[in-house]
Protein: Branched-chain amino acid ABC transporter permease
Organism: Mesorhizobium qingshengii
Amino acid sequence: MIARDRNWLLIFAVCVVLAILYPFIADGYQLTVIRDALIFGLFAASLDFFWGRTGILCFGHAAFFGIGGYIMALVTLNDAIPFGSLLGIMGAVTGAAFVAAIIGYFLFFGGIRGSYFTIVTLAMGVICQQAAVSWSSVTGGDSGLIGIPPIEFDVGGTHVDLSQDLPSYIFVAAIVAVVVLGLWSISRGRWGTVLTAIQDNEVRAAALGHNAPLRLLVTFVLSAAIAGLAGALYVCMAGLVAPDLSGLLLSTEVIVWVAVGGRGTLLGPVLGAIFIQRAQQTISSFNPSLWPLLLGCVFVVIVFVLPDGILSIYARLKALLNGRRSTP
C-alpha cells in the first residue's frame, strides 16, 4: 500500500509539473483544448470516485453535469443576482448534490444495487435530458442557453477575469489538482477502506457495524456535487449550455474515459479524458467521420491489453525493470 501511494503521488507530481510547463509551449487554442479536457477529466474523476470505490456503475452521471451547467447558466445570466459566478458555482454544486441525495436515498436504502441501479440511473439521465428539452421557457429547449459570461471574482481587492485563455487554464488546472488530491486522500483513509469492504461484501460490512446505505449515499452525493462543479466550469468556459450535456452520449463517454484511464485510480480517468479529447481534436481535423471508429478500436485494444487502464503502464514498466534487475 505504501509503495502504491508513493507511485500515485509520483505520477501526480509529474502531471502537476507538466501542467505548469504546458502554457510555455502551447498557444491559446491548445490551452483551451486542454482546459476543456481537464474539466471533463474532473467529471470523469467524480464518476470514478463512486464507481471505482463502490463497484456500482452510475450510467446517468451526465445528468449531474448538466444540472450544474444549467444552474450556473441561469444564475450568471441574471444580472440582478450579485456575485453571480460565486453563487452560480455554489448553486451548481448544491443542486447536483440535492438531486443525487433524493434519488440515492430511495435507491440505496431501498436495496437497489448492481445492474438495477445502473438501469435506474440510465433512465434518470434520459429524463433529465428530456426535461431540458421540454422546459424551453427556462432551459432554452433544444438550442440551450448562450452568452453565459465567464467566471469573475475579486480576491484581496484584485479583480480576476477568467475570460482569457491562460487565467482560465490555471484556474481549472488548480481546481482539478486540489479535487483529485482530496478525493485520493479520502479514498486511502478509513472512508475508502470501508467502501472497499462494502464493495467486497456489503452484508458482512453491515454486520461489522457499518451503515452501508448511508456511506454509499454520501459517496454518491459527493460524486454528483463534483460533477455539478465540472458542469458549472464547462458552461462558463464554453459560453453555452445545451441538453446534450446531460444526455446519454456524455454519460457513455465518461464511462469510456474512466475505463481507459483506469477505474479506481482517480488520476487515471483525468488522463484518459485528456488523451481521448486531444485525440478527438487531432483526428477530427483530418476526418471527422473517422473518429468514432478509432475510438471504438482504441477502447477494445485497451480493454484487452491494458485492462487496468493507461495508468497501469507505469506499474508494468516498473515491475518489468525490477524483474530484469533481479535476474542474474
User: Anything to note?
Assistant: The longest strand covers residues 152-155. The mean pLDDT is 89. The two ends are 28 Å apart (CA to CA). Residues 3-276 form a domain with the ABC transporter involved in vitamin B12 uptake, BtuC fold (CATH 1.10.3470).
